[in-house]
Structure formats: structure tokens, C-alpha cells
Amino acid sequence: MTISLNPGHVSFGDLEAIYRQGGAFQLDQSAYARVAESAATLADRIKGGDAIYGVNTGFGKLASIRISDDKLAALQKNLVRSHCAGVGDPLPANVVHLVMALKCISLGRGASGVRPELIHLIQDMAKAGILPVIPAKGSVGASGDLAPLAHMAASLIGEGDVLYRGERMPSGKALQAEGIAPIDLQAKEGLALLNGTQVSTALALAGLFGAWRLAVSSLTTAALSIDAAMGSSAPFSDEIHQLRGHRGQIDSARRLRELLQGSEIRESHMSGDERVQDPYCLRCAPQVIGACLDQFRQVGATLQIEANAATDNPLVLSNGEIVSGGNFHAEPVALAADQTAIAISEIGSIAQRRIAMLVDPALSFGLPAFLAPDPGLKSGLMIAEVTSAALMSENKSLSNPRSVDSTPTSANQEDHVSMACHAARRLLEMNANLAGILGIEAMCGAQGIELRAPLKTSERLTSVISTIRQHCAALDDDRMVSADIQALARLVHDSGALSEVNGGVSSIGLMA
């Protein structure tokens, strides 16, 4: 199915579908009239002899140098080639696919002065599965994601490498195989491709999509830990959370109540446990995870605006003026990425404390040390907890803000930059770490609940444990658990099985 995109009004759901499912996308036909009009306006201004930045002048510090009309096309091709300076591993294919869609949306606002055929080419390449190889590193997030977007632009003119049918090859070869002609860039088109925040935004969106799924999954793993520890469900009473009023906290408490409803273990706590209060990692799970959900919703609103924005320079305004501005500065994306990173770190931090509690016989209310069937002879999940601590610590370091680390570039012409690209890129690594932590919590929580037999957990958590056991057997004897951790990390990160619990559990929407 081809996803139709109306620039300025593209939904969050469509963006996630493009990222997760790939496939074809195309601009709504109504957008092309605006695109053609801005291209015509630009052509008229060039004929009139106006000096327009990046169109008939040099770039950055070289903006005062005027370029003759017969060299305007060469100027754009030189721009693309000279800016292909990225390094590092290629961006993931699904991120690149989203970058291409975001670039079409931005150009489709009709303020970039490009021809409709440039947009058509990007769409045709995406539909054919021709994805530019974009090195991950090289952008400082101002004047656009210049280096990574240059590598995308190079593929449109038949240069650089692409990924096609599972193979890395020269762009020209892949285009030829699909019968697609590379484009000869006209005035401003190279600049319009390079200017913009599309790589930073795609990475931030990818990080957010993963973080949201993991946050909701963490409510499921938290419920496992709460029941395994014979925790109280009283702190999840709706009125407590309504009295505070934060949406994420209310949603989280409701989800925990639903997951725990009907648990014999919980009922046993109510009748015979002398504890007055549980540790914060159990009792305050709605407050912590809920605050992170609210943070993600705020980030989502920012990134949806950015995804629909015209972010190149100069822009062709509705009154016919062509004005140099600074929409390419990715500060909104950088701050959003930093907020996301902090929330990812916090979700992992409180989850790790629940893991530590479950393996500690002084805190786990009757569970054997390290959840081992025969502690001492067997070490159980002792080192799995250590691994969770290592992953938590990495995420704490990675959560330090990137947006505050500006440095001047381009001979001090571009003297304040956002660092949005690597602020967003590290979210993918952080999500992988968080998935490992939650995978370990799932392992510990399931093991702890099973050790409570003959008491039974709720029907919903019984179903969750059944899913876990399809990927990780119960720990009856010491064994190598690395593969189990990785399998459960994939379960929470890729499949979303623990965020999409069946059986009447309320859904929690990111942008609903």
C-alpha cells in the first residue's frame, strides 16, 4: 500500500508506518501546484538578475562570490560532491527510508524552489527499494544535516553508493536496473536537498518509536516484578493518581492494575504481609514511567511539527520574496532528543532497581538468593543482574545532553550549532541497552512468580509468562544466559509483544 502524504499535515501514524513497514509513499497531488509555483518564482528571480544565496552565489563564508548563470547547474553538483564528507557505519535502512520521506514532505511545502520531478525521483527510488548509503557521522545539526543529506543527494544524480536488493552498489547501476534516470540538478536544488533537518529528525523519530514501545513494555515487566516480590497494588489506586493529574501517571497506574487483577500472589500480600510500604521501584513505578510517557508525548508533538516543516534555505515565501533564514537549525530536534535520552535512562534505572531487589534475599520477601533453585551450588541470575547494571550505567552516560555542546564551524560563519544528529543517533543504542535491561527483568520476574507456586499470578501475567517461555526456558539449573537475554531483548524491542498484552488491557497511545 502506498502512503499518501499531505505536507504540513502528515500524521504521526503515517511516519511510524513508513519507518516500521517501509514501502511506497507519495505526496498528495495537491502539493505539486505549490512546488511548481515556487520553482517558477525562483526561475523568474534568477532571470531578473537578483543575487540569491546558494543559487547564484557561493555557500557559507563564500556567499559574497557571485556565480554566472551558465554555471548554476555545476554549482549545485559541486555542492553535493564537496559535501559528501560523512564517515562511520551507514545509517539503518529503515531510517534512510524515513529520511527520504521527510525530505519529500519538506520540499512538498512549496517553499524550496525545486521542480516536482526531484520529488518524484526520491519517491520512485524509495518505491524501488533503492536506498542511499548514508554514513552516520558528520552532521552538527545546523545549516542542515549537510554531510548525510549530501550522500542522499548524490544518489539522485547517479553518484555514491546505494543499498539495492540486499547489495551495496553504485547508485547509477541500481537506477539503471530499475529504468530510473538520474537527475540533472538545477538552480538551488542541490542546496534544497542538503539543507534541512531530515536526518536528525528521522533518527529522533526512530528513537522515539522504539522508546515508546519499551516504556509501555516496562509496565509489563514492572507488573511481573511487583507480583514476584509480593508487592502491594494499593499504590496503584486510580484516585491517588487522579489527585495528581498527570496523564502518563494515570495511564501507567491503570495498566498496572489491569495486569495484576486477579493475582493470588497479590491477594496473599493483602492478607498476611506486614510490610507497610514497598520500595520506590515498585510503589513509584507509575510516577516514574508515567513521567517518561508524558515526556515522550511532548517530544512526539515537537517531532511531528518538525517532520512537516520546510527547513532548507533560502525559502520562497508566499509573496514571492526569497529570504535567507535559519530553519535548518535543528535545536528543536536536539532538545527533543536530549529529553528522550533522559527518559530512556530513567526507565532503565528504575527497572534495574527492581531486578536488584528480586535477586537480593534481604529484599525479595522469601525468594531464594539470585532466584537460583539451589543457592550456593548454583548462582542463578547473579550475573544477569550485573549485566543489567552495566547497561543502566551506559545509558546514564549516554543520556548526558548533546544540545549544550555547540562549536563554531565554517570559518565562524556557522557559529552556533545544535548537535541534533548525534543527539538523536545515540537513542538507538540507548534503546538497545534498555531492551536488554527489560529482557533481564522479564526473565527475573517470570522466574520469581514461578517460584511462588502454588500461588498463581493473574491471567494476564500468566499469558505474558507463557510468551516469555517461548523465548527463554525457566532457570532450573545454571546455564549460559546470554542468548536468553538477547532473545528477550528482541522480544521487548522488536516484536512489541510485552507492550501489546492481550486480554482487555487498555492501550496507551503516544499521540492519541
TrEMBL record:
Per the UniProt record, which EC number(s) apply here? 4.3.1.3
Q: Which UniProt keywords apply?
A: Cytoplasm, Histidine metabolism, Lyase
Which biological process annotations from GO are given for this protein?
L-histidine catabolic process to glutamate and formamide; L-histidine catabolic process to glutamate and formate
Q: In which pathway does it act?
A: Amino-acid degradation; L-histidine degradation into L-glutamate; N-formimidoyl-L-glutamate from L-histidine: step 1/3
**Name of one Pfam family that matches:** Lyase_aromatic
- Annotated Gene Ontology MF terms? histidine ammonia-lyase activity
Q: Write out the ranges of the annotated region (Disordered).
A: 396-415
| Compositional bias per record (Polar residues), positions renumbered to this chain | 396-412
Reaction catalyzed? L-histidine = trans-urocanate + NH4(+)
Q: Name one GO cellular component term.
A: cytoplasm
Q: Which residues form a coiled coil?
A: none
Its family remark reads: Belongs to the PAL/histidase family.
- Name of the protein in question: Histidine ammonia-lyase
